[in-house]
């Protein structure tokens, strides 16, 4: 295993220190317990938004802290949920009196620890609402999950809920729009290689040189099928079919099409996938009116990608377009 | 070799089609010859800016086409210079009457083909100026280069020259600021693995499981030394020392610190490198006043990173901060 790290046990703390050094205009960092918080938090009267989960998926979640998106991100150890402690501390730090929304990817550990933190925050008179993200259509239950996994769609939930909070929506409304985005989002991924967790030092699973895993999770959890490598267009078709059947998306829909890299796949390949996915949607009469392409929800250095489709309406489009200023996603003013 | 592609010979054309499908608000694409051009080009009275080079370094250059940066990007085959033909066509497409700046990474093929295109454009009465980027301090001459190579600093030249053109500077002034950025920028990189060129189908070079290459080029060209893997902090020190000696940077300087991923390195590692680089600069009394972290100048799926330091002054800082709207870099209005 070759990695640009020092001691595997310091990976998260050192990376977070790097984020603090790189983005002092956007965030400040708490080291004990570890969380990343928007520089001007709390914003009085604004709903606070906290997300988090195991590290190794960067820029998720720390790269999305800033104006118009998250108020705080709580990174756990690599591929391991943060404990309730830092989640509670982050929740307190971002509470501006209008309550706090927790956006939680659906993994058993994350759900449990965010729930405990929400209970503890409640005991301190902070109104906490929780939205669980479970956009992955690949498998019904998985290695670390009862029910569907939360994967790349999490970025869309965080962006749109963040915009709703920024414009002054109350906690009920912000939770409702986050719930709606999750309900209208579907994702599925593919892996060509396995990630290497620093303290483990070897690939999380074996994948032969001529095989790929369809329906992979973002921790390398098993998907639907292990198949021989196919041309990119055939792989896109395999990922899109279950996505489009599941909602279902229909002719006339407006969607956001998001092609996400898992960390180790060159951008040129992501655009090849995007091209085919846009073609398939056009053939079905679905209009791609918003797009996102890049490495946003990764699995360390895993080679692979995922496709996410979000069914838009006027409200979601307006919130998607709203200004955002974070390390990994920014536009407008 | 596993890649998310169809036929290796269609990689660039299909990726460019993906860029066109993903970013219709920013760019349009010419397929014969292939180049990517800002949607509203040419802008009458504005200096046009064209860059380009072999593909496989995305988001360089196509991801930087848009308001406040490039007017056109010309992608050659993977790791191979574009011919003069598409460079000329792009130059004509962006000429708004105020002349065109070519920003060229210092590789023999690129320099020659851009020069030929500039001559042909001159014959059509387009005033073309050329700035060669050669920010890599690793080696004096290299596999494809007489003199220093152009690497990650290219992004900084493109951003700042783009801002100068956008505010209405004339061709002399835009060329002068691009020349100044290049003169004040130094970079050096490290590789942990080799990239795999699609049509070759195997790694560009062999790098044993416990070794890294210090001073690597962005096509995997040899660097200064092949050494055993070291902790990240030691590697940063090895990359920064020649950078800081070369300009030389001095106590009291304001700099932009840019940690660039080569494509296959997780973002968490880039922030670990950033943390150490910022520490070293602080120890030397150098103030990091602007930052950039991420995969901007890549070498396909190569694992590795580079560090770039740009000595700032008020003018360069103002131009860096100016609004930019491209696929890979955007902020402001």
TrEMBL record, chains A, B:
<keyword id="KW-0319">Glycerol metabolism</keyword>
<dbReference type="GO" id="GO:0005829">
    <property type="term" value="C:cytosol"/>
</dbReference>
<dbReference type="GO" id="GO:0019563">
    <property type="term" value="P:glycerol catabolic process"/>
</dbReference>
<protein>
    <recommendedName>
        <fullName>phosphoenolpyruvate--glycerone phosphotransferase</fullName>
        <ecNumber>2.7.1.121</ecNumber>
    </recommendedName>
</protein>
<dbReference type="InterPro" id="IPR012736">
    <property type="entry name" value="DhaK_1"/>
</dbReference>
<dbReference type="Pfam" id="PF02733">
    <property type="entry name" value="Dak1"/>
</dbReference>
<dbReference type="InterPro" id="IPR004006">
    <property type="entry name" value="DhaK_dom"/>
</dbReference>
<feature type="domain" description="DhaK">
    <location>
        <begin position="7"/>
        <end position="331"/>
    </location>
</feature>
<comment type="pathway">
    <text>Polyol metabolism; glycerol degradation.</text>
</comment>
<dbReference type="GO" id="GO:0047324">
    <property type="term" value="F:phosphoenolpyruvate-glycerone phosphotransferase activity"/>
</dbReference>
<comment type="subunit">
    <text>Homodimer. The dihydroxyacetone kinase complex is composed of a homodimer of DhaM, a homodimer of DhaK and the subunit DhaL.</text>
</comment>
<keyword id="KW-0808">Transferase</keyword>
<dbReference type="GO" id="GO:0004371">
    <property type="term" value="F:glycerone kinase activity"/>
</dbReference>
<keyword id="KW-0418">Kinase</keyword>
<dbReference type="InterPro" id="IPR050861">
    <property type="entry name" value="Dihydroxyacetone_Kinase"/>
</dbReference>
